[in-house]
């Protein structure tokens, strides 16, 4: 397990083993790489980040991940795989499950109030984009990207 302080000063625990945290995950993130580019969404307040969000009532984590990717980018996913979890020690501790997925297709969508579009970014752009969301710049994101490189065969 990796423990670090995020850019907002909160302790974060990252694990690549399932079920390490006592807090049930209620949020998801999805890493998707297609034709050597990462799928990202443009959040109007936070900036460029990987798609993700909160579970809706009655949803599984997998259903939330599929829905969030589509709502934020218009991309359909396949082969969704559990990848990691992290817990953020905020006033109310919360946990996110991180998935990987493969590209299955894309539709044109109208973006909502929260997001203003999507991007496909190369590795270099993904790391150095000038408008990255705060959580895309922390130690946990770097560690997840390192781990994904080790699993590069699926990408």
Automatic annotation (TrEMBL):
<dbReference type="Pfam" id="PF00293">
    <property type="entry name" value="NUDIX"/>
</dbReference>
<dbReference type="InterPro" id="IPR020476">
    <property type="entry name" value="Nudix_hydrolase"/>
</dbReference>
<dbReference type="GO" id="GO:0016787">
    <property type="term" value="F:hydrolase activity"/>
</dbReference>
<feature type="domain" description="Nudix hydrolase">
    <location>
        <begin position="21"/>
        <end position="145"/>
    </location>
</feature>
<protein>
    <submittedName>
        <fullName>NUDIX domain-containing protein</fullName>
    </submittedName>
</protein>
<dbReference type="InterPro" id="IPR000086">
    <property type="entry name" value="NUDIX_hydrolase_dom"/>
</dbReference>
<dbReference type="InterPro" id="IPR015797">
    <property type="entry name" value="NUDIX_hydrolase-like_dom_sf"/>
</dbReference>
<keyword id="KW-0378">Hydrolase</keyword>
<dbReference type="InterPro" id="IPR020084">
    <property type="entry name" value="NUDIX_hydrolase_CS"/>
</dbReference>
<comment type="similarity">
    <text>Belongs to the Nudix hydrolase family.</text>
</comment>
């Amino acid at each position: 397990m990796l423990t670090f302080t995020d850019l907002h000063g909160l302790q974060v625990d990252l694990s690549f083993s399932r079920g390490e945290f006592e807090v049930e995950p209620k949020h998801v993130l999805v890493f998707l790489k297609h034709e050597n580019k990462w799928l990202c969404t443009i959040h109007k307040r936070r900036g460029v980040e990987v798609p993700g969000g909160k579970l809706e009532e009655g949803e599984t984590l997998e259903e939330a991940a599929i829905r969030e990717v589509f709502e934020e980018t218009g991309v359909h996913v396949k082969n969704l795989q559990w990848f990691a979890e992290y817990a953020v020690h905020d006033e109310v501790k919360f946990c996110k499950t991180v998935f990987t997925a493969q590209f299955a297709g894309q539709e044109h969508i109208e973006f909502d109030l929260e997001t203003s579009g999507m991007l496909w970014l190369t590795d270099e752009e993904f790391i150095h984009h000038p408008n990255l969301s705060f959580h895309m710049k922390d130690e946990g994101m770097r560690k997840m990207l390192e781990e994904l490189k080790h699993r590069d065969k699926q990408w």
